Amino acid sequence: MSNEEDVGIKAYTTKTDPFTGILRHRFTDFKVNEIDLNGNVAHLTNFDIPTPAVSIASADDALESAAAVAAAYETLLGADAATKKDALLAFLDQAKLHKDAASNNPAPAPLVLDNVPDKDLRRSVHQLFKNLSWAPPLSTSAVSFSNKTGGEPNLQGIQVTCTSSDPRKSQAGQKRKWQEREQWPGGKNKYLRFALFKENVDTHHALMSMAKALHLNAKVFNVAGTKDKRGVTVQWATAYSVTPEKLLRVNNTVRDLRVGNFSYVPEALRLGDLRGNKFDIVLRGLSAKSSDMVEAAALALKTSGFINYYGLQRFGSSSIPTHAVGRALLRGEWEEAIRCIMTTSSNTRPEIEAATAEFLAGGSPNKALSVLPRNLVAERSILSTLAKEGPGATVSALLSIPRNLRTMYIHAYQSYIWNEAVSERISKYGAEKLIAGDLVVPRSTLQAARSAKAKQATTSKTQEESSGGNLAEEEDAPEEDLAGAVEPHLVTEEEAASNKFHIEDLVLPLPGHNVLYPKNEIAQIYETLLQKDGISMTSSSHKVKEFSQAIMPGGYRHVLFKPTDLEYSVLRYDNKETGLAQTDADVLNGSSKLVLPENGKYLALKLSFSLPSSTYATMLIRELTKMPTTVEFSKTLQHPE
């Protein structure tokens, strides 16, 4: 895995003394609560069932009893034509008895009603059997039949069937289904929104576990973003046509998950439907010499903010970072791109490492394919194509990688260039003021653009997305990309001198063919970096469009972020395993508040702050402590004894 300087993370905004601290010593040391588009922070506070949007027993289009249905049937057809009225009444009475959970009465046999030659009249008869809450689900279908007395051979009637009349189905199971399938309590709001609380479980695993426990297709669930495994998180989720009573079973059947705070909503969540996240983090075992030193660093962070770098997570965990793959693709170096993708990380299982190494040395792709796990999607796509088409099919192999992964490599390269450019901007001009030629997007303008984008996204959902959608596979929202939505403003000499704009408004472009570049020395930095890598934003060195600058319009990203709601406190404690934070579950369970010694031998820092989506909490921690954010470094930290 890369270190920070390898991906352009080099500068700081503050000059406080460095110290170290252990992050996520306990998973409760890292809490994340999602913030929705309206600014509501997700918390699990109750398990209340919301009031139904409609009264099940008195729906406008439902009849209240078997007698009422039979009477309505007679009214529609007329007394002479409704010869099956009594048979219908008996059918409905039997169906009602069959529904009773305490009854062992069998379901009635299907009943063919009278001849109804008129199409509109048949439609009205069909409607009689809708939303009968007192009966089991009844289905109706058009049938043709002959009059037994020798009349017309092709009469048009309707058959009514009690859906459990198939004897192969368990009556007990059917009755449970009736209870769940009775009229949807949300009315026109077909989705159930809920707070999903999870501990030490990633979002994808949580949704799959819920679906398995409730015997549902996982596609009924939607989330706005995925959350880390190692932590305690609460996020909003939606479920299509799943009642709160059914969903509450999760709390008793699925470990480390709880759901609650239910409401009925008209639309499913979709990836990106969030403003950001609220973080509550504990750093323990601090190496700082005093609490004053820690508080000074926290105050400086709140005052000056931190550089909005793309964090190391952006560049993957393999020994060769993802931006190196993107660079090779943009240069048309297909074999090099495959080598980068297939080179494993240092913590890969030995048999996988051996198989990929053998392949890279000229071995058979089939052998490596037989060893690689299915979660290595890009690697398996490459090997499968090479096995089928031969070793020369390098472009086909790369194009066989799913599109979202292919574009991830290109975006990682853009992120690398952005990080490098930001480091140069801060190094040359500091992080305090704007200069002429800078690009700015005021935060107020950004918020208005995001609101408009969110509204447009909501109104343009497809029917397929509204009926379930796919499980989120990305982390939170799509990257902040303001191309086409917000045009940055070029700061003039007069505006820079008068401080018309704030340093937090400063943006730099992600390289692309449709962005503006600063009108100062920073523009040259982009040109130098791209030329060094042999890449142009105006032309391509190869003819494969999917890996060219043609798919890189570019975008803009704010350089700094100031956590204005940052709160912090220094804690003392004696036991390194002491819980230093309460979760929503602790509060619901009535756990007592933490009581810590004033003069404990260990030092910890408790932080609370909010970040917009696509801003990395690890970069805030880096600015605060000045310690590296690599996994390798964190593994070297040991809690003091």
Radius of gyration: 31 Å
General shape? globular
Number of helices: 22
Number of domains: 5
Mean pLDDT: 87
- The portion of residues forming beta strands comes to 15-25%
Biggest β-sheet strands, sense, barrel: 9 strands, mixed
Helix content: 25-40%
What's the number of extended β-strand segments?
18
User: How far is the first residue's CA from the last residue's CA?
Assistant: 30 Å
Structural class: alpha+beta
Q: Any low-confidence stretches, pLDDT <50, length ≥5? A: 55-61, 165-172, 457-479
Please describe what this structure looks like.
It is a single chain. This protein is of the alpha+beta class. The chain has five domains: 5-32 and 276-308 and 563-636, no CATH class; 41-49 and 185-265, Alpha-Beta Plaits (2-Layer Sandwich); 57-181, no CATH class; 320-401, Hypothetical Protein Yqey, Chain: A, domain1 (Orthogonal Bundle); 404-451 and 478-558, Pseudouridine synthase, CATH 3.30.2350. It is 35% helix and 16% strand. The protein is built from 22 helices and 18 strands. Strands 1, 2, 6, 7, 8, 9, 10, 17 and 18 form a nine-stranded mixed β-sheet that branches. It has a four-stranded antiparallel β-sheet with strand order 13-12-14-15, with helices on one face. A three-stranded antiparallel β-sheet has the order 3-5-4, with helices on one face. Helix 1 packs antiparallel against helix 3 (119-128), helix 8 packs across helix 21 (617-625) and helix 9 crosses helix 15. It starts with 21 loop residues before the first strand and ends in a 5-residue tail after the last helix. The model is unreliable at 55-61, 165-172 and 457-479 (pLDDT under 50).
